[in-house]
């Protein structure tokens, strides 16, 4: 799952899909069980199945809604795979890609709270990245 976190970080820093594909390829090279192409079709809560499903739908669908609904429609551990694909696709596509018909169903107070929390978390991440001693590790770093 660390690879997925690294992909999100890269996307938030301006990386594109090919750079994420490199991170995914590195994961598969180091841990072949996580190979997701061809997609084995399992979406259980087992971490290997989850990561395979997430990476498959993230890389096979450029549109946010298609990636998320594709993963969720696999069933099984749909809440987890949907959340993780949504995290990656959201970082890649941005908030403007969120389907309006999904957003219209969310209470406005909840949207404001989520927006405030997101901005605060991003600010913390930027502060840590700018620090001479960041607490976030780079891809090759070991604690």
UniProtKB/TrEMBL annotation:
Cross-referenced Pfam families: ADP_ribosyl_GH
Official protein name in the record: ADP-ribosyl-[dinitrogen reductase] glycohydrolase
Keywords, alphabetical: Glycosidase, Hydrolase
Cited PANTHER family: ADP-RIBOSYLGLYCOHYDROLASE, ADP-RIBOSYLGLYCOHYDROLASE-RELATED
Record Gene3D superfamilies: ADP-ribosylation/Crystallin J1 (1.10.4080.10)
Protein species of origin: mine drainage metagenome
InterPro entries assigned: ADP-ribosylglycohydrolase (IPR050792), Ribosyl_crysJ1 (IPR005502), Ribosyl_crysJ1_sf (IPR036705)
EC number(s) stated in the UniProt entry for this protein: 3.2.2.24
GO MF, one example: ADP-ribosyl-[dinitrogen reductase] hydrolase activity
